[in-house]
Write a structure and sequence with these properties.
The structure is a homodimer. Chain A has one domain: Glutaredoxin (3-Layer(aba) Sandwich). Chain A has ten helices and four strands; from the N terminus they run E-H-H-E-H-H-H-H-H-H-H-E-E-H. Chain A has a four-stranded mixed β-sheet, sandwiched between helices. The longest helix of chain A is centred in the first third of the chain and has 16 residues. The first copy, chain A, starts with a strand and ends with a helix. The interface between A and B is medium-sized, with 23 and 23 residues.
């Protein structure tokens, strides 16, 4: 049985976005499956009493330059921060889990589109109007998709995944698991790859 | 003129230690000089109101596993945390700057020894006895070296470097500069290398 990688991310996580090409490459090179698992990092930050990076801090300014370099190294378009940032990814996440109920590939296509809109185009993916526009572009019924994000089963699924992430020790994004082995950060994909090679 | 890399580190920074082989490789491959610059990260944390990672946090437990993997990937001995950790690197840093006054290579040799003693052997490099023992092993006059760490010029030099780091925007360790381009973290040596290659 091929290994699988559990990939926990928050749509507002710029470092999850710049990790996408690296994840795709590892999945290809090692013939592993990737389980995309959007969750709400803010819920975990609150539970752990971790402060998110402050918008005006010296670290945040460095981080912008760092993300530009990460995007360039990964072959992604020039990096941009959407406004607002961080943004609330709850509706985008619920839409993902709704799509995932019937077609996991459509859900992943949605996730890629949300990330690209946010960090390559600077669009506000907390906005229902922006999400509706993207849904239409991807051939979905926008009204139906947004309505589905209010369904109890979809809300419960996002809560469940966020709880699962917390139970497994996730405290940031992106976080990857191969079995019980946890890797935090796109820069740790090199460790994940070593782990797969030695397994 | 070959490029130089300014390498700011704190002796208590485990992530500076695991970056050493990577720095050496880049220096070799690109024929660049590395300026080793120990400073006091705690002073900057205080000034910026940044909290150091808490010893018992979930992040710290992950960090231990991460450092084991970093050390292994870098070809270093099995990683160990010294006790206490973090430790106060002020005496080890002053000894570095004293040695640097007359022989920068001896200073770098000292830095490597302090890092190895701390994170491969788990010795307490905040202890004058441990430092004296190491100084003797390296062929220094231990008593003279420790006495020199109380000299005003040596104290002033460490303060100056810590202030210089803060002025340049350093908020963590290791931090590297090529000219004004700043790279934070050993995992960003891949970006530094791209930068050198494209320069």
């Amino acid at each position: 049985m091929p290994a699988t990688i559990d990939f926990y991310f928050d749509f507002s996580s710029s470092y999850s976005y710049v990790a996408l090409p690296g994840i795709a490459k590892i999945a290809d090179d090692h013939d592993v499956m990737v389980n995309w698992k959007p969750f709400l990092l803010g819920v975990i930050f609150n539970a752990l009493n971790h402060a998110p990076p402050a918008g005006d801090s010296i670290k945040m300014r460095y981080s912008h330059r760092d993300l530009e370099r990460c995007a360039e190294a990964a072959g992604l378009p020039p990096f941009v921060f959407p406004s607002p940032f961080p943004f609330n990814g709850i509706v985008a996440s619920r839409a993902f889990w709704h799509l995932d109920e019937s077609d996991s590939e459509k859900a992943v296509e949605w996730a890629r589109a949300v990330f690209h809109a946010s960090f390559a185009e600077g669009r506000d993916c907390s906005s229902p109007e922006v999400l509706a526009d993207m849904a239409t572009s991807l051939g979905h019924d926008a009204k139906q998709l947004l309505e589905a994000t209010a369904e109890d089963t979809v809300k419960a699924r996002l809560k469940e995944i966020t709880g699962e992430a917390m139970d497994r020790g996730v405290f940031g994004a992106p976080t990857f698991f191969v079995g019980d082995e946890m890797f935090w950060g796109g820069d740790r994909l090199v460790h994940l790859e070593r782990y797969l090679s030695n397994a």
